[in-house]
Design goal:
Elements lengths: L1 E3 L6 H11 L22 H11 L32 H8 L9 E2 L3 H8 L9 E5 L2 H14 L11 H18 L5 E5 H6 L3 H8 L23 H18 L1
Parallel strand pairs: 1-2, 1-3, 3-4
Helix pairs in contact: 5-6, 6-9
């Protein structure tokens, strides 16, 4: 199982729910922070591999030259960018996929998933998480405000948040054409409406009452671009089908 979605869309919430249901997320998980006090459910080795793949494609001015790989997850890549992996990189990724009920989560997946496909086991399924673009832009900005030093001079503006949301979710919409995907909306996760559909999809019951609503509130930024709004409407329609 892979959890896919733009940064700050609710993928960590899905990670928490699936971990509580019994899924294993890796040997060396990123530590919890103020931004995600319950953890990110991201294996450090997976994220480092994703950074390796994205590093050659970072656009000029994306981030500080002294630490570009650390900010690769914030990249705004054009649709024309194709990310590929070497056989050695795919082998390293495949080694991180244990046999027991396992789930891998990484905000880089919408960009790098095609590179990893040859390493995925047959029957791999995908949970895609979408969230309103204005909420994502606000959440990204809040993360930057809490710890600007991490970004080493790269400011995460609301405009960058909207651009990142759109770039990632354009790719996500194309990927979701595959029938092995479940699309869930962050709003339906927080209310619990999507939990039965998520449980059916992964084949394990999802514990109820595990969602702290106070950890998942972001006032939407004003002025959502028309293209982002239309893209969100298309993804939200897929999510509504899943919980109907």
């Amino acid at each position: 199982m892979l959890v896919v979605g733009a940064p700050r869309s609710g993928t960590s919430l899905v990670g928490q729910l699936l971990a509580d249901a019994g899924f294993h997320f890796g040997r060396h998980l990123l530590a919890a922070t103020d931004a995600n006090p319950r953890g990110f459910y991201e294996d450090v080795e997976v994220t480092e591999l994703g950074d390796e793949l994205l590093l050659p494609h970072l656009p000029p001015g994306h981030g500080p030259a002294e630490a570009p790989a650390r900010l690769a997850w914030l990249a705004v890549l054009g649709d024309e960018v194709s990310v590929s992996a070497t056989p050695a990189q795919r082998a390293r990724f495949a080694a991180l996929l244990p046999e027991r009920p396992a789930c891998i989560k990484d905000p880089r997946f919408p960009y790098v998933l095609d590179a990893w496909r040859p390493a995925l086991r047959p029957g791999t399924r995908f949970v895609a998480v979408v969230r309103a673009p204005g909420e994502v832009a606000t959440s990204l900005r809040a993360m930057w405000q809490r710890d600007p030093g991490y970004y080493a001079g790269f400011e995460v503006t609301l405009d960058h948040g909207f651009a990142l949301w759109e770039a990632v979710n354009r790719r996500l919409l194309r990927l979701c054409a595959d029938g092995r995907w479940l699309v869930v909306d962050h709003a339906d996760l927080v209310t619990g409406r999507a939990l039965p559909a998520l449980g059916r999809f992964v084949g394990l019951p999802i514990p109820e009452g595990a969602i702290d609503v106070d950890l998942h509130r972001s006032a939407p930024a004003p002025g959502t671009p028309d293209r982002a709004a239309a893209l969100y409407a298309a993804l939200a329609a897929l999510a509504r089908e899943a919980v109907a």
